[in-house]
Amino acid sequence: MKSKWKNDEFYGQILKLLLPIVFQNLLSAAVSSADVVMLNYVGQSSISAVSLASQYASVLFMVYYGLGTGATILCAQYFGKKDMRAIEIVEGIALRFSMLISVVFAGFAMFAPDVMMKLFTNDTELIALGSSYLRFVSISYLCWGITEVYLAVLRSIGRVVISTALNTLAFTLNVFLNAVFIFGLFDAPKLGAAGVALATSLSRVIELIACFIVSAMSKDIKLKLSTLFLKNRVLFSDFVRLSLPALGNDIAWGVAFSMYSVIIGHLGSDAVAANSFVVVARNFGTVLCFGLASAGGILLGKVIGENRLEDARTDARKLMKLTILSGAVGGLLILAATPLILKYAVLTDTAMHYLKYMLLINTYYVMGAAVNTTLIAGVFRAGGDSRFGFVCDVIDMWVYAVPLGFLSAFVFKLPVMWVYFLLCTDEFVKWPWVIRHYRSGKWLHNITRDYC
Q: Would you say residue 150 has pLDDT above 60?
């Protein structure tokens, strides 16, 4: 078996893509972990406020991820076709959408942060702390929209090492600046929760500058504002057709997940604080799973663009085997980390009780997320099928999970842990439909064409 894996071209190619992406995801999880660990010494209210305010960044990430996915679907397949001009046009189209959305989010965060916080909590202390955070972090939204699209395009053509290096720069700076502004090191102002936001904005600005420097040195794809004005009706139509369902899928999923925070946020600061630690643990547990989804999607897209459809079908089966393994590993990691987290978390007794059982629930929740993410965001989208995931997640999250959460919390007034358990059934409810669609092969399409 070992020799078979070693000599299989698919496993070799996916390993080259996977390692930088996993390293990048680990760094991202490390930043979130550093935020929580450092704020742990500031106070439970700061942890809760940043956790709630960060939900907007989570939604925005889903927007960028959806746009990046739309770009990746097209770019990966056109890269297989060796059409770099089409890739440049697609990049410009994605940038137009991302910059528009960034301006809207940044405007609200700067001028109406209290309104944004009131959607999550009615606690006046959390609203004040969260509003300060949002004002400082608003600048990062403007930079983030540009860098995420550019890095998604780089990954789609196999330049994952460059993408990872740029993210490494941003994440490393973020952690260092977090410490500086949270604790007031080197005579800097001691800003607490707002320091996390300022560190994020400064690191995003520097990351964007680094992207322009790398672009100037690149022979492949440039980050040029002139691409915003490149027009092509055929590619724009394809991007909208493929990207909007992916974008709608990710927004529907991201906003629904934020509704989970709304529900938990109204159950008390103990539940919010416990969930803040759980999110960090889950991020580490899903690093490998989500890395496989990204790497698999890029590799399958290239194979499909070369019109090797049977090879793509075979590679998808291999990817699913790896996904099951990664889900099991992720669950075991959370289980192994549970005693350590419980030892060092500085929370109330009630919050510690919640934290213990939330972590246990996530040991198996990772498997559900792993399978669905690989199939919906990786395999299906690589084959040009972004609509199925959109329909599936809208029904699952907005017809089932979110209403169930609100009913259990505010109508039936179930205990906090029962509400959390019910919310965490969302991934498994959609398994039958997702797996059946995968087996049908209806997701597999070569979407490249002569666009001129």
A: yes
CB 235 within 8 A of CB 90: yes
Evaluate if pTM is beyond 0.85. Answer: no
Tokens of 1: 């078996």
Q: Could you tell me if 117 and 55 are in contact, meaning their C-beta atoms sit under 8 angstroms apart?
A: no
Cα Rg of the chain, angstroms: 21
Instruction: Report how far residue 24's alpha carbon sits from residue 27's, in angstroms, rounded to the nearest whole number.
Output: 5
What span, in angstroms and rounded, lies between the C-alpha atoms of 236 and 451? 10
Tell me which amino acid residue 220 is.
Answer: D
Q: Any idea which residue has 């505010």 for tokens?
A: 410
Q: How confident is the model over 49-94, as pLDDT tens digits? A: 877 787 788 778 778 877 887 788 788 878 888 888 888 888 889 9
Whether the Cβ atoms of residue 338 and residue 292 lie closer than 8 Å to each other: no
How far, CA to CA in Å, does 161 sit from each of 36, 217, 338, 340, 423?
A: 28, 15, 32, 32, 36
C-alpha 243: how far from chain center: 16
Q: For residue 431, what are its two tokens? A: 């398994």
* 35 pLDDT tier (thresholds 50, 70, 90): low
| pLDDT tens-digit map of 91-128 | 889 999 999 999 999 999 999 888 888 887 788 888 88
